[in-house]
Amino acid sequence: MVNETRVITPQTCPCCGENLENVTGHKTDTHYELEIPPLTVTVTEYIREEKRCPTCGKRISVEFPNEAAATQQYGPNLKALIVLLAETGMVAMNRVVEIVEAISGIHISEGTVANTIERCAQRLEEPVKSIKEEVKGAKVGDFDETGMRSQGRLKWLHTASTKRLSYLEMNEKRGKEAMDEIGILNDFKGTAVHDCFASYWNYDCVHALCNAHLLRELVFIDQTTGQRWAKEMIELLVEIKNAVDMRRKEGKVFLPQGELSNYIKRYYLLVEGGLEKNPEQLKVAGRRGRAKQTKARLLLLRLYEHQDEYLRFAIDFNCPFDNNQAERDIRMAKVKQKVSGCFRSDKGETSFATIYSFVQTLKKNRVSIFGELVKVFKGNYSFPFQLATE
């Protein structure tokens, strides 16, 4: 919407100096300037009155509304801005204080920033729980975890994602114990997309492995050994992905059986050829334990064992080629750690995971983050869209 129009027109002829004010012009092109109005702070004064009942003589007063419960407090717009800067912009608390004062003239403390974030997370507990419940019932979910520093210790940020939903949670552990405590994979019956971390195999669901991880490993084998099978496997995986993308654009939901069978046959031939070039290393007499195998052979054994999981994307078009969805959801958490160093308390790490689950879900559904944060601080929040199971 255009709020103001300014016509830029010549006043005189540069050649002869003729006055052009009364000459009719025609539009040649248009430029636009987008601007925000100057930020102003409004202060609302709440004066409580006391009245005496003319019948019984009792003195009567009422409580202040929630937005004025304290002697002085900040409104939902300012609180939303604080959370937006700290938990979406990943701005350190001291810098949030500086930015708020620079643009509004209001001086807040770092304690106010921390308390505002914590209150926001408390108000989002139920909405984020609903995200978690919907992820449990998804047809396809992406799962990942990454190390995060908290109070001087290494903890793990776990994520469970779909195309429209994101759920993150911190835990002391990385493996099955943590996944059980989080409680998504226990009930998940769809397709779980993940890397080959051993703990994921404990859950009774359909599994799909990330081919982005696999491609990186194949590139390493190709560059360090020069064995041709690794490069040919890369080419085969990319070829299958392109075939799936093309069929999907055509509105198809599966590859023709003959085409899929041909891809699987080529996959096995490459694995078998690779195993021939990387025979099993025999145990050295007198040494304990199993013989150490080469990285190439270990990868080939995994490719042989998990062929269905690596090619799941070609069998089920709902399944992605890689696990990048989950990785994107936790990428900014690493930025948070780089900026802030580590979380200072359990409340801080919990608040971040809760708010960021909410923010990422809003982004995926293309909803204004700032506008929804304002609604959160006004109370009784509900999502402006359906958290439908995918």
Oligomer: single chain
Radius of gyration: 30 Å
Mean pLDDT: 92
Helical segment count? 14
Beta-strand fraction estimate = 5-15%
Largest sheet: 5 strands, mixed
Structural class: alpha/beta
The first-to-last residue Cα distance is 35 Å
What gross morphology would you assign?
extended
Roughly how much helix do the residues carry, as a percent range?
40-55%
List the strand order in the largest sheet.
5-4-3-6-7
SSE pattern: EEHHHHEEEHEEHHHHHHHHH
Q: How many E strands?
A: 7
Low-confidence stretches: none
Walk me through what this model shows:
The chain is built from 14 helices and seven strands. By secondary structure, it is an alpha/beta fold. The chain has a domain at 211-281 and 292-322.
Briefly, what is this?
It contains 14 helices and 7 strands.
Task: Lay out the secondary structure.
Elements: E1 51-52, E2 59-60, H1 76-88, H2 93-104, H3 110-123, H4 125-136, E3 140-150, E4 153-161, E5 166-171, H5 176-182, E6 191-194, E7 206-209, H6 211-225, H7 228-249, H8 257-277, H9 295-305, H10 307-310, H11 312-315, H12 324-340, H13 346-364, H14 369-378
Parallel strand pairs: 3-6, 6-7
Antiparallel strand pairs: 1-2, 3-4, 4-5
Helix pairs in contact: 1-3, 1-14, 3-13, 4-13, 6-7, 7-8, 8-9
